[in-house]
Amino acid sequence: MLKFLARRTLTLLVTALCLTFLVFWLTNLAPNLEKIAKSEAGARISDEEVVSWLDKNGFGGPILLRYGEWLGVLPGWTYTDEDGTVRGRCIASGTDPALAPQYCGVLQGDWGYSRVFRAEVIDVVARGLGLTAKLMFWVLVVMVPGSLILGVLAGMKEGSRTDRILSTGAIVTTATPEYVSGVVFIAVFTSSAVGLKWFNGSATSAMEDATWVNFTLPVLTIALYAMGYVARMTRASMAEVMTAQYIRTARLKGVSFTQVVLRHALRNALIAPFTVIMLQIPWLLNGVVIVEALFNYKGFGWTLVEAAGNNDIELLLGVSVVSVIVVLLTQLISDVGYAYLNPRIRLA
After folding, report:
1. What does pTM read for this prediction?
2. Which residues have a Cβ under 8 Å from the Cβ of 110 and sit 6 or more positions away?
3. Which CATH code is given to the segment(s) 126-347?
4. What is the average pLDDT across 29-35?
5. Labelling 200: which of 84, 87, 189, 280 has CA 20 to 30 A away?
6. Where are the domains of the chain?
7. Where does residue 256 rank: exposed (0-12), middle (13-18), buried (19+ CB within 10 A)?
8. 3-state helix, strand, coil in the chain (%, to 5)
């Protein structure tokens, strides 16, 4: 298991470097850099002035060099103005350049400065990630037990009336996009025309104090969509396990149906749903953009939209780093959990 973890960790590090470099290259294309120069120095500046501004602000070097500076494995860029003032990535305003650190990248905790929010990138990302983590937590609390229970009940007796009803409901929820179900929830539970003013149509107040009234609708909107997919996967896995030979043998030996399900079938049936549930976490992190915009909840997805819409390169890179880390970590946890649930994986 240790060798497996070491190999997988090394693979994840290489994958993280490749993905972050790809995002860095895409965000630092010439048209994007030109937009930044014109938005900061003026829309009417000439091409020569654009090049000059990029050189003065550390955007003029080779892409590999600037990636190393951003990552923190190469010394940060410096530039000396005509009056002798030394500026650079690692030189804070008002500090002595001789006392500034030589390396100041992501590895050192310096993620850059957001031009849109006028704050440190790491602070902006941490705030959005914390808000979305709170939303994700309650979505998982609702989604995981609900989808597993529905899937197991449907798969225990394949082809029964219960199976048909639950499977139809799962298909309907999966086929309904979040922006449709969210609008329906707002219209039904917050509109004065219907009369069911049970919840708030805005989740802005939930950023500070989440309550049953202001946080239920966004949680249900996301949970119902993912719940149908996981429930269908659980149902298929459970139905397959219930037809296995060892299940029939246990039944012939007189083991009760409840004991067969809980002690023999359930663990093997949860292998595939466990992987699917773990893969839902990266989707929840980046796929809640529509829901956060619909309910005005300014989390991680909303931050990503603001960064992309305003061409905030440093913030885009910070968001991408967090996304890559979350995706790779959840895949590692999924692999380890899969090996635990299925010991044959370790033998292989």
Report:
1. 0.81
2. 72, 89, 90, 104, 122
3. 1.10.3720.10
4. 88
5. 280
6. 11-110, 126-347
7. exposed
8. 70, 5, 25
